[in-house]
Amino acid sequence: MMRLSRLAQRFGLGRTVATLLLLAFGAARLWDPIALEELRLRSFDLYQVMRPRVADVRPVVIVDIDEESLRSLGQWPWPRTLIADLVARLTDLQSAAIAFDVVFAEPDRMSPAVAANSFRMIDEETRQKLRSLPSNDEVLAAAIRRARVVLGQSGVAAPAAASQAAPLPQTGVATIGADPRPFLVTFPALLRNVPALERAAAGRGLFTIRAERDGIVRRVPMVMRAGDHIVPSLTLELLRVVANAGAVLIRTDAAGVRSVGVPGLELATDRNGQVWVHFSPHDRTRFVSAKDVIEGTVAPSRIAGRLVLVGTSAIGLLDLKTTPVEPAMPGVEVHAQIVEAALTRSMLARPHYAIAVELTASFFVSGAIITLAPMFSALTLVILGGGVAAGLAAGSWLLYQQHNLLFDVTFPLISSFAIYATLVFVNYFREQIGRRRIRSAFSQYLSPTLVEQLARSPEKLVLGGEERDMTVLFSDVRGFTTIAELYKDDPQGLTQLMNRLLTPLTNAIIARNGTIDKYMGDAIMAFWNAPLDDRSHEINACEAALDMLDRLRVLNDERRREAEQSGQPYVAIRIGIGVNTGRCVVGNMGSDLRFQYSVLGDAVNLASRLEGQTKAYGLPIIVGSRTARAAKDLFAIVEIDYITVKGKSEPEVVYTILGRRDLAQTGEFEAAGAGVSRMLACYRARDWRGALTASEALPAGNGQFDLAGVAALYRERIHAFEEAPPPPDWNGVFALQTK
């Protein structure tokens, strides 16, 4: 499991899962479950439906024991003498060879000797004459000897009883390679013809046709095993007889049977010795009625020089098969089509290396998807995948159409699509987990709108730290010790009070797209322009600072009313806020065990120092120069000092925000601003008397805001400078000695 985990980390979760799935598909293809086989066979059926074999050469004719023949000549089975007439007539018409898709397994019950023993109302002389006549089977055997006839046999499930008679003839089998019997379709025994017919025939073959699991005939065995013997099919035996060969040839390898053949003709088979039949649609022109042959009304040209298959299309004789191109085709026509396809070199073949080719195609396409998926967009990958799928399908179709080869395109397509779907699902799953993690991590620090934007665009969150311009805010409660003393016997009450305070202050920050960095007791640290871009981060921070003061006034009003009703002492909560803008580094910071999304930089330190100086200036808000420059047109902003904070050498002009634009447009603000400007000008020009006069005028003209703390601070400094003047190179900068 640890190795798998490390692999997933290095290779990627999606790629790891997809690779494992690909290996599972490869194992499944080697196992070849029913579902895969059914899909493969259905695709081969589709090819034959789309382009069946064109039967423009007809070397085979079917003599059909059809419904009309049964009505005219009687029900089946016919007397063997009638069959002998049929054979004799076909021989006279110069047929090349005759094969029976029927078996004559029992002696004819209509033979003269059988009749002599069955008829009761005949005299003894007649009975003896009947017994002296040849049997119907002997008559048929004589007709068979005068022609090249292949008799049909059938495989049976029950072993036949041992016979004491002389062994019947068997077709010779030559094998190149290993013993094919372990791979062949096997029957316990054969259902053979009566011995007289078997010995008279030129050949004997099995006409057994086995359908696939779904009842469709696609493959027909050319050689089979019956007991310990290898026997050819009816069609292969017919071809052997026509070729005047003494045996059929079987080629094998370690995988099984490769081919069967007779001199001049070799048929590729599957490992079980079965051929893939290349079907053409059912065609009645292949058939002539057995009645017409016996009655001599068939045209000689229909028979002369052709291979004749004797079988039936009569529904009552139950020899109908389902094929890829026909829902019902007479079994004898299946044999006829095998012979046609074999003689015209149009038999289908599925090479033994087909599985290797299909697995290679699957691994190549799926491997390409696994490799390239992270590099391309979903649309590009779909287009490329569609092109590859079309190419695979076209290649498989062309091999079928031009070379009669069967290669399965469904397995590469299914496996590659499954790999693609898995990558999509895993990426979607990871994205959802990532979004939930982002929502969970930032829901307490960002507004819901920003959290949702970040969840939809997580690439905006750069982990590990990035440098950007940001605005930072610090706030802290003034006189917290005094407030805490009121709750020395009720620490739970103090906790509730802090929650009542921090909740509205936090909401004010989040409502202005701010990010809460941390809570430090009664203090808050927040920042803007990360993790999402905020082009108005300075303005939003200033709005949040004023909103915090507004919400604090509401809270103090509530607490005052509660104190009056309960008779408890009331102390108003006051806060100081420092805001500064500058270059910062933001990202996940901490240790391997614990980290936090936070911000670092000199601008952060200055914001913290400015918050600390609100006590000295008696102001609720102090902002740095960059923040003030960005917000000066939207707020009532006043410059208050030119300082260097403790720990810094660079001076900074600092400002206070007294209100929003509506206040900036009032006469009180304009007067106060002008007063502060006069005070600062005199102060920096070392005009102590003028600066004192300007400072004393500030409290009187403050109106809606309080600048008394600023005025008092400057009076204190001026008195100190009157006693100990600053150095000659002093430029108005005041170095703060406290944080």
3D architecture notes:
With 739 residues, the chain is α/β, with parallel strands linked by helices. It folds into four domains: 2-50 and 351-434; 60-106 and 141-159 and 168-343, no CATH class; 460-607, Alpha-Beta Plaits, CATH 3.30.70; 632-739, no CATH class. It is built from 25 helices and 27 strands. Strands 1, 2, 3, 6, 7, 15 and 16 form a seven-stranded mixed β-sheet that branches. Strands 19, 20, 21, 22, 23 and 24 form a six-stranded mixed β-sheet that branches. It has a four-stranded mixed β-sheet with strand order 4-11-12-13, covered by helices on one side. A hairpin with a 7-residue loop joins β17 (320-321) and β18 (329-330). α5 packs parallel to α8 and α14 (378-403) packs antiparallel against α15. The longest helix is centred in the middle third of the chain and has 33 residues, at 410-442. 38% of the residues are buried. The model is unreliable at 1-10 (pLDDT under 50).
